[in-house]
Amino acid sequence: MASSLFTDLNGQPIHDSQVLGYGRTGVVVRRGSSAVKIPLRHPWSTESDVQSNMEIIMREQGVYSRFNSFPKDQTDGIVPCLGLQVNATELAHMENGDLRTYLEKNQPSRELQMRWFRQMAQALEQVHAKCVIVADIATRNFLLDSELSVKICDFSEASLLPLDTDMETVDNDGFSIQTDIGQLGAVMYEVITQQKCDFDRFEDGIPMDGRAIWPRRTSLPSTEGLWLGEIVEKCWVEGGFRNAHALLHALRSADREDSTLKVSIRSYTNAAKKPMVMLSVVFGVLIIISAWIRNRS
């Protein structure tokens, strides 16, 4: 039998069938109807590695604790945190897994994509309103529930800031609400095109001061001719959207324009059909009259 890739903190192997996902610092396992995130530990991990991962889990728990202090309707775009234990974060299980894996097997309609993008922008607005910078927004960090609604998860790299922080001006070592919006633009591009896109803040390596740097435009793909390309492009311009609410407003406007265009096309199609129907009726009547005249003769 192949050895397990992961072990719990007691050194006991975790069966592959229990693993829902994993990242650089944590592994998520299925426990009944919940998903429990614990520090990542491989059979070959050093104690220093495990200790570092435990500290990151504890820091992430501080973010979830902040979210849980607000009413649920203010955090409904975030995967619900059901409980916090020492070195274990209990989360609601999302039946349809992560968005990246879903996209590998499915081609969502534009209507579903637009719904996701609005939900993503609204989730980001909720996170920023709680004075949190995500810093790691990717398709693998959005999960889908039973109704294919998308919710954000994974705050292992997030910055938990004081609640009186001016989120539109704060800069945390190069990370800000603007870098979060830039990363969300890359997620939108990946969903639309089915091509992986990375908004890399360290494309030239980590600077001596450790600060993130806004990526060069040439490191990102072209949006020319892309559906919602103007919105994605604006996400990649620092300050293009003042905040996540402005992005959400732009998506809602684009959705209304799409809906209006579809209604116009349907109306035009229906109107075009009417003369054809009348012509068919007249032609049918003429055939009947001609047959009647021939019979009379």
Structural write-up:
With 297 residues, the protein is of the alpha+beta class. It has two domains: 1-93, 2-Layer Sandwich (Phosphorylase Kinase, domain 1); 94-285, Transferase(Phosphotransferase) domain 1 (Transferase(Phosphotransferase), domain 1). It contains six helices and eleven strands. It has helices spanning 47-68, 99-105, 110-129, 177-193, 229-235, 244-296; strands at residues 6-7, 13-14, 19-22, 26-31, 34-39, 81-85, 88-92, 132-133, 142-144, 150-152, 159-160. The chain has a five-stranded antiparallel β-sheet, with helices on one face. A two-stranded antiparallel sheet has the order 1-2. The protein is globular, with a radius of gyration of 26 Å.
